[in-house]
Protein 1
Amino acid sequence: MQAAIDQVISRITPADKEAVQRAEQRLDILTKPPGSLGRLEELAVRLAGISGTEQPAYGKRTVVVMAADHGVCSEGVSAFPQEVTVQMAYNFLGGGAGVNVLARQAGAEVKLVDIGIAGDVSHPELIARKVRYGSGNMAQGPAMSREEALQAVLAGISVAEEAVKSGTEIFITGEMGIGNTTASAAVLCALEGIPAETAVGRGTGIDDERLRHKIAVVDRALKLNAPDPGDGIDVLSKVGGLEIAGLAGLILGAADAKVPVVLDGFISGAAALVAKALAPDSVHYMIASHISGEQGHRLMLERLGLTALLDLGLRLGEGTGGVLCLHLIEAASRIMREMATFESAGVSGAESR
Ligand SMILES: O=C(O)c1ccc[n+]([C@@H]2O[C@H](COP(=O)([O-])O)[C@@H](O)[C@H]2O)c1
Ligand SMILES: Cc1cc2nc[nH]c2cc1C
């Protein structure tokens, strides 16, 4: 399994520098004062680098919602009970979750992957890739074995490969898993050497007392398991989660296919940090959609070297912020394809002063 992942990693290259240059040049001849479309221009340049063309057009958009459970829930780290994960799985499949609504509006398809839900889910639309029934309790031992972490990463890669084969041109990372902000905070601490109190937030909405307890749980898990910060798979297996591993694989698969991957919130950010640890150039293919209300996400994006496009105080997960960002991606790509140039519209350029 390691060899198959290494093969994918070896194919991931930086963004296309020439397409970046062509995009910058095109932005300067469009009918607007230079730089006046602000961050939309930066987005257009990044998309050019990813897609290898300064005038990209994106058709099929796929939100991949990886769902899994977390043994650490038994420590009382979430405001909600674990069974919500399986219940929400059916909500996604029925089209009633927040991300389903926003995806319909943005013309995106939602795919639910069972990568480690603690219960059984059966539905014709489900992508069944269960590695195990929930992770182990990281406060008492490793979350999973190294083999299970590799299997989950590989599952994410194969989901990406299959979606690209069926026409996906943009990915959005989504997830569902009660307890997964604890695992994501632990991954952030382990990879970036950050203290638990900086990385841990309120997740689904815990009070001050539970927050102090959650920080102590993450501290204990890190001390007990001593994950190796130089080894992304070790971090995943000791203090990660199955959906975090699956999303890390999805990001690697997207980067391998040179398809933009829009990151949602805190959990997607943890997966992105793992992908970066495994393949530093994968960051070139990531678009940070929004800054989550979850404490620690800002720092996470800083460590990824990415700037979020939206700041709406979202903290739902599922891919909701990522899907909202599709409207901006569509805007940036249409500007590059449809906006007139000074020459084509007969508009005078700036006077040199
Ligand atoms: O995306 C985010 O930034 C985000 C922030 C807080 C919570 N969530 C969602 O809430 C769940 C995890 O919260 P918790 O408190 O159970 O760890 C999980 O299903 C996530 O999708 C997501
Ligand atoms: C209801 C509910 C929906 C969610 N969607 C993502 N995380 C969630 C957590 C809860 C509790």
Protein 2
Amino acid sequence: MAEKTLPQIFKYVDQNVDSYKKLLKEAVAIPSVSCDAKYRDDCVRMVEWTQEKLKEVGARTELRDVGYQTIEGKEIKLPPVLVGVLGNDPKKNTICLYGHLDVQPALKSDGWETEPFELVERDGKLYGRGSTDDKGPVLGWLHAINAYKGIGEELPVNLKFVFECMEESGSEGLDALLIEKLKPEGFFNDVDYVCISDNYWLGTTKPCITYGLRGISYYFLEIECAKMDLHSGVYGGTVHEAMTDLIYLMNELVDKNGKILVTGMYDSVAPLTEAEKRLYTNIDFDTEAYRKSIAATRLAHNGDKEQILMHRWRYPSLSLHGIEGAAFQPGAKTVIPGKVIGKFSVRIVPNQEPEEVEKLVFDFINKKWAARGSPNKMRITAQSGRAWTENPDHPHYQAAARATRLIYHTEPDMSREGGSIPVTITLQEASGRNVLLLPMGAGDDMAHSQNEKINVRNYIEGIKLFAAYFYEVSKLAK
Ligand SMILES: NCC(=O)N[C@@H](Cc1c[nH]cn1)C(=O)O
Ligand SMILES: [Zn+2]
Ligand SMILES: [Zn+2]
């Protein structure tokens, strides 16, 4: 590949900004919300739409069936997984790219300034659900491939794709597809590296490359006191209320400083070594900017940088997410909910196994429930995914760092991330190869939140970064 290829690609990308925005607008307009069965057809539509785009860049694609999920006793078909292959030159390195096409729910009434499923450009930012998590990055890969084609240059690597539409809901069916089908079929045989772009820079100016993720153990805690909702003027004072029991249990889980109260939760957390402790000192992270960007009054751990990073990356945290069945709509509704489902999760960390964490939480809740002596019905279920870490001293990381320096003219931080991408460790095990997370978006993109956005700069420079990453990986020894 000629010396001037990358500069030509960068120029091509700059000339095609409008078409990249247009495609992201189309993708965001498909409300592929995976956690709500009523959007299941949109999830399928999103997978099929992406399949067409993958075909347009020349990939061989197939939609793999991953069966059904059970929601409230009903069997619902899971969206298919989009699997693709582009190139099979044995002289070239092969990268397996993973991304997800589903999104978290969003309603304008949640507090969005504009319609969440309509991509809107304002002040150099593209607002819309999925813009940064993860539709922008997935399209970024396709645009980077297209840019090579656009300047008439052969792609310097072979690519394999795994794009799913259930990541935000525990990646149901994906592990089985990878381990029981794709691996035995030889899909990973020629894979040399795995790359995922589904996380963010730590701050807003400095790029990073990510070598660790927390896992997640998500709980549904259901309490039922009656077969229907009740008038509190008629039944209040005469029944043991489900909501009262639920609030009691949820309040037992974590203290006001965020310390998890579930017995044994910290026992198997990997011990902090002196060498690891030193790593946090050099990370470029402005806790005050982080605090201000969310308008929080005060951060935990007195806002100490090292402690904040450690509690995002290497210690478990427990969050209370919501209560299904509670009267959350505006207005003074005087109902006693008949059944409520409390939702909370534990972000789990290296050395903690999901089964072990689930047992600790179940035992703790059962003990508290027995002590409460409530006559109501209680049920707790969980879905979990493991934590992941990788060796950042690998040539793969050096290649990604060279690509990043070329685009952003600065040394990227080697970071870990507090969020979870359950399939990462499965891809690491199935391929036996080095896995790397190459984020496109910035730390203030507000994924999962109101007014999710991606900066135009991150989207466009991210496309160039992906193209440069292909080039750098192509130079690694076979
Ligand atoms: N971008 C990754 C991401 O947001 N992952 C989710 C995964 C999830 C959601 N529910 C269960 N797992 C996350 O919340 O980290
Ligand atoms: Zn994501
Ligand atoms: Zn997400």
Protein 3
Amino acid sequence: MRRDRFLLAATLTAIFSADLYFILLPKLRSVGQGTGQLCSCGPSNLTLPRLRGLATPQLSNWTSALPLDDTTTEPTDGGLKLGRLFAHPLYNIQTPELGPEERLLQVEQLMEYYRKKVSRWERHNKLYSEVAAISNISVIEHEVTFDPDASWMKFHLGISRYALYSRDDPAIPQLLRDMQSMPVVSADYTQDEKALKGACDCTQVVKPSGHHLKLALKMHDFAKAMFKPMRQNRDEETPEDFFYFVDLQRHNAEIAAFHLDRILDFRRVPPVTGRLMNITGEILQVTHNEDLRAVFFTSPANNTCFFAKCLYVCKTEYAVCGSPDLLEGSLSAYLPGLSIAPRLSIPNPWIRSYTFNGQEEWEVNPFYCDTVKQTYPYNSGNRLLNIIDMSIFDFLTGNMDRHHYEIFTRFGDEGFILHLDNARGFGKHSQDETSILAPLSQCCMIKSSTLVRLQLLARPEFRLSDVMRESMEGDPLRPILTEPHLLALDRRLQKVLRAVQRCVRRLGKDEVIIRDFVKSTVKPQTSTELIKAR
Ligand SMILES: Nc1ncnc2c1ncn2[C@@H]1O[C@H](COP(=O)(O)OP(=O)(O)OP(=O)(O)O)[C@@H](O)[C@H]1O
Ligand SMILES: [Mn+2]
């Protein structure tokens, strides 16, 4: 009997100790950490909302990004990481009210532009219908509406010198929903492609380009989107012998890049969604372009297909086919037209050679960055830091095809840079192309705001692959990325942090981590000022 009591007591003590050690203590610790500690990564005058227990990693802890296999502290939160990430103080930095000169467009200007477009469309449509009737062409006529509250208008009006959209702009999810469901009223080649073939005015394009199958679609409220059809299955890896410049464009890479860009808080990629398109009803039958009609055909398997009519030999082998009409694709929301918001295309200083054995200077000269730093526009302002942000973004996705980048001319050298065309990312999950990181590893500089967000995403409670998986759950074409691609993101993120770590060891924190978002948010005119350490 006594022995039984002893055993019972011993068991209870063991259970209590385990409880104390594994449950109570960690809880107490997390409560202790959560109280009163606010973001200390930035300057003390940064306005941050007080959120419960969401401590921001300190810059001094920058090496403390947790190893990937450390899952012991992972909370079982049932997939709410994305919500917690966006509630984090780092994603709630209050930016100042934007002055009119900091916005890309003014309401009246855009309204006027929109009105003109609608009346031009109506005139053109009337004429086309008459001609089509005479020539026996069957076109589906769709109603168009002039909607001053259209989500694409709100997107365009929200573009500022800091980013393409603000973090909590409800117009962005609305625009994604609209692009997913709105009737398509017309389909055509994109302007850049027409310019390449000499078929349209080159002043209307940033750069004649377009060696890929892509189309411009117009929705019934005049929203425009760039459609890139699915060319590769999600689980196919780019073959080893493929050069990056003959690699296919991937629609899911475009979609994933938008989500990644938003999660990194860059907001430099226009909103992109997936959509299952009926290529007969939503492209062939709504196009007024005879050249586009001419590339449609029915395959031996009775599927509707179309092919890219490019400058080089483009044959039916390069076609994409529906099943029998349905085809997945990405829809990227169009930026405002060049006549109201001109953009400039600038060669990437770390451009690759687009020949079989060519090499660029950055590949052979370890001091290449010193030259770049002395060259306009990289010799002042934040352009070089933005290029480094872009290289981190591209390294995470594995995109080696960043030959140019674009900027809005309105914001001059201080504006952000656009991350357009991300379709060549996510080709290989089993390989990390570290040369994409050359701007970071050669210049050894990174914005502190970028670094703290990367550190946050390396922590188990926000893990990049988990927030990406969650974010893309809302896309109609989910799953957007296969698991190996998601896990590659975590692995690559660790590599970025290690590259920064190596730089800090060599040059010291002050040289490498460049403070941004430094000035008070109280005075709008000095909202963001970059202090370069050199
Ligand atoms: N969302 C968008 N809104 C407006 N214009 C866009 C958008 N996305 C891309 N463009 C324009 O179209 C051009 C070509 O797009 P993209 O690079 O995706 O196609 P591409 O066929 O790969 O071209 P390239 O051969 O030059 O790489 C871009 O340089 C840009 O000027
Ligand atoms: Mn491209």
